[in-house]
Amino acid sequence: MSIKAKRFRAQSVSHLLGQPSGLGDVVRMATLIDRAQRHLRRQLPPDVAEHVFVGGYRDGVLTLITDRAAWLTWLRYEQPRLLKLLHQLPGFEAVMKLSLKVRPVRPVKVAPRQVRHLTPAGASALTQCAAGMDESPLRRALTRLASHAEPAESEGGNDSSH
């Protein structure tokens, strides 16, 4: 049996953006949301602005998201003023109400740093390899890598840390 694949012609970006309920609508909505976000951030007090995010816009309802319940309470009291601010923005004259939500922002988990150790023998091997090369970025990299070796323990047991 043979499997025949359909061949699609590449479509221009302008065609993709112009299709109804396609990529163009997504781009237009993202642009509107970004404009609303920037407009609100300029109008809100700085301590509040960094905690308020525009989450979406659908059927005359603009969703605002905040990371704490205290800011949600502040937003509830400020709804009439916020709606007036949004009505000044072209494209948002039809906003009828705000949907307010709390979504705590979880801190980004930083991956633990993996520390690798280079033994003196490994450093010696890298140094010998670099010594046999002409001057090059690879030679410099090997030399730099060899310089990260753990110091060799002193001979004769004179090290006081043992």
Search tags:
single chain, 162 residues, alpha+beta, three-stranded mixed sheet, elongated
- Going by helix content, strand content and strand pairing, the class is alpha+beta
Distance between the termini: 74 Å
Low-pLDDT segments: 154-162
Q: Which descriptor suits the 3D outline? A: elongated
Largest sheet: 3 strands, mixed
Number of strands: 3
Strand coverage percent: 5-15%
What proportion of the residues is helical, as a percent range? 40-55%
For the biggest β-sheet, the strand order reads 1-2-3
What is the number of helices?
7
Please tell me the overall pLDDT.
80
Radius of gyration: 30 Å
What's the helix-strand series? Answer: HHHEEHHEHH
Question: What this model shows, in words?
Answer:
There is one protein chain. With 162 residues, the protein is an alpha+beta fold. It is built from seven helices and three strands; from the N terminus they run αααββααβαα. The chain has a three-stranded mixed sheet with strand order 1-2-3. A hairpin with a 2-residue loop joins β1 (52-58) and β2 (61-66). The protein is elongated, with a radius of gyration of 30 Å. Mean pLDDT is 80; it is low at 154-162.
